[in-house]
Amino acid sequence: MGQSLIFDMDGTLFQTDKILELSLDDAFSRLRSLNKWDKETPIDKYREIMGVPLPRVWETLLPNHSVEEREQTDAYFLERLIENISIGKGDLYPNVKEVFSYLKENDCSIYIASNGLTEYLKAIVSYYHLDELVTETFSIQKIKSLNKSDLVQSIIKKYGITNGAVVGDRLSDINAAKDNGLVSIGCNFDFAREDELSQADIVIDDLAELQTILFKLHK
Q: Per-residue pLDDT tens for 22-55?
């Protein structure tokens, strides 16, 4: 088929929900121990903004804290995420490995484009052996603008992609596809929002559906 598929990570391939609350609570417990937070962990607020780059996450969750305190919290949060991944507390969504194997067998190229940090992505790719199926994983850290559309554009330029799709659960993924002339496939998973998915070219409820809709990717 010769298609290129660019996948989001959190909420698309990786069930971030399984380690998100644990890791976020660890981060805010640390702030409480330092007398820098006296409320509940704002997990619902994080769910609302899930998918934005981490610097923006901490600006939203810790608006009254210094940049240094946000950076320290970010670093600790990352440590806890990676630790929880390494001890198997996370999980991939159903059919990720099966679908990736199918895509590879049908001459498709697989890429990951994520707002997650490089070390975090490495932990997931390594633990679940996705590097055996994925051409390359790209982190938003490499893009000064922290814009998902720019990240996808960098993948297109590097690999000379002319047709394919971006597969993701949030509006940033859908816009990244449209801004770069690719098909947008919205994933109706844990963090998805109906108003955002309505803007996708195709919406799926399970990654296994990709095996039956690849022909729609031809422009």
A: 999 999 999 999 999 999 999 999 888 877 777 8
Q: What phi-psi label fits residue 168: left (phi over 0), alpha (psi between -120 and 50 degrees) or beta?
A: beta
Domain span including residue 197: 4-15+91-217
pTM: 0.90
Instruction: Give the N- to C-terminal CA distance of the chain in Å, as an integer.
Output: 13
CB 47 within 8 A of CB 192: no
The two three-digit tokens of residue 64, written as one number: 């009254």
Q: Give CA 18 to chain center in angstroms.
A: 14
Tokens encoding 216: 């729609």
Same domain for 77 and 173: no
Q: Tell me the three state secondary structure of residue 100.
A: helix
Shared-domain flag, residues 58 and 116: no
Inter-residue contact 155 to 138 (CB < 8 Å)? yes
Q: Compute the Cα dihedral for 196, 25, 79, 132 and give only its sign.
A: negative
Rounded Cα distance between 99 and 126, Å, is 18
